[in-house]
Fold:
Amino acid sequence: MINEEIRDREVRVIAPNGDQLGVMTSRRALDLAEEQSLDLVKIVANAHPPVCKLMDYDKYRFETAKREREIRKNQKIVTLKEVQLSATIEEADVQVKAKAALKFLQDGDKVKVSIRFRGRQITHAEIGVKVMNDFMDRVKEFAVMERRPLLEGRHMIMILSPKEPAKEASAAKAPLRTQSARPALASDAKPESRKQAVPAARPIPNATPRP
Structure:
C-alpha cells in the first residue's frame, strides 16, 4: 500500500536514508512525504504499528524491474529435450539422433533418451540397454549419464546431462624448497690445510763415525 491507501491510525516512519523518524499519525506521515515530494510506502504491514518508508516509489519499481531483468538475463534456463530411439534403429538414424543430442548438450540442455518397445520387443529389454549404451558412447565427450536406462512400462528412459568443462588447476605447483640464506659463520668455513715448515737437516761439522 502507498500514500492514501494506508488507513492505519499510526505508523512507524523510516526516512529514505534509513533513519528512524518515530511513530506518528498516518496524516502526519503523508504530509511529511508530500513535503519531500516522496511517497509513503508500507513495507511491514503486520508490525504494530505498521512500518512505512518515505521513498520515490516509481523509481523503486523501475530499479526493482531492472534488477529482475538482469537476473533473468544471467540465468541459464535448463530445459529437457527428448531424443527417441528404437530397439531396431538403423545406423544412419542413430547418427542423426546423436547429432541432435550433441547440439542440445552443447547448448546446456539435458537430454531424455527414450525407446518404446513394440509388441514382443518388451521381452528383450537387454537389446534396448545395448542401444542406450551405444548411444551414450557416441555422446560421452559432452554428456554424463544422470540416470541409467530404466524400464517404465513399455518405455526405456535414460537422462543425460551436459558435461561440465574441466576446471584448470587453481594452484600452481609449489616451488622447490631452497635452503634459506644465512650469514656465513666462522665455524662453517673449512679449515685450511696448513703445511708445517720442516727445518732442513743441518750438517754436523767434522762428524766422523764412531767405532
Remarks:
- The chain is about 30% helix and 25% strand.
- The beta strands are 10-14, 20-25, 39-44, 51-55, 80-85, 110-116, 143-152, 155-162.
- The longest helix spans residues 57-74.
- The chain has two domains: 3-72, 80-162.
